[in-house]
Amino acid sequence: MYTFDDSLHLHVGYYEDGKDLEGIFFKVLGEPKWCLFFDQDFYQLKVNGTYSYDSSFGLLVDTISTLNEELTYERGCLLFRRFLEYEKLIDTSIED
């Protein structure tokens, strides 16, 4: 597992269609990389994919590089939404 920078994290969410789902990105220490976690147990949801589990944060559902593009709230929410769609936890589709 990764070591995270304690001073850098980003909460992201999906708040449409009566849903209130959140994930959290943590910055990997010393690398241009962020990890997205989703706590399926908190939301009592079942995901189909195979993900690493961290007892403090939940499922590690995505790892992104910020070498060429910073992680903004908007980008983070888009990536989180794509995960939710992939897992069929929401019924919408994204138009890029």
Question: In brief, what are we looking at here?
Answer:
The chain has 96 residues and is an alpha+beta fold.
Structure commentary:
The protein has 96 residues and is of the alpha+beta class. It has one domain. The protein is built from two helices and five strands; from the N terminus they run βββαββα. It has a five-stranded antiparallel sheet with strand order 1-2-3-5-4. β1 and β2 (21-28) form a beta hairpin. The longest helix is centred in the C-terminal third of the chain and has 14 residues, at 73-86. The mean pLDDT is 92. InterPro entries: DUF3986.
Write the layout of secondary structure elements.
Elements: E1 4-14, E2 21-28, E3 33-38, H1 40-43, E4 52-54, E5 58-65, H2 73-86
Antiparallel strand pairs: 1-2, 2-3, 3-5, 4-5
Descriptive keywords:
single chain, alpha+beta, five-stranded antiparallel beta sheet, 2 helices, 19% helix, 38% strand, DUF3986, DUF3986 family protein
Helix tally? Answer: 2
- Our count of domains comes out at 1
Characterize the largest beta sheet: strand count, sense, and whether it forms a barrel. 5 strands, antiparallel
Question: What sequence of helices (H) and strands (E) makes up the elements?
Answer: EEEHEEH
Q: Going across the biggest sheet, name each strand in turn.
A: 1-2-3-5-4
Distance between the termini: 32 Å
Q: Number of DSSP strands?
A: 5
Radius of gyration: 13 Å
What structural class should be given to the helix and strand makeup? alpha+beta
Low-confidence stretches: none
Rounded mean pLDDT score: 92
Strand content: 35-45%
Q: Percent range for helical residues?
A: 10-25%
Gross geometry = globular
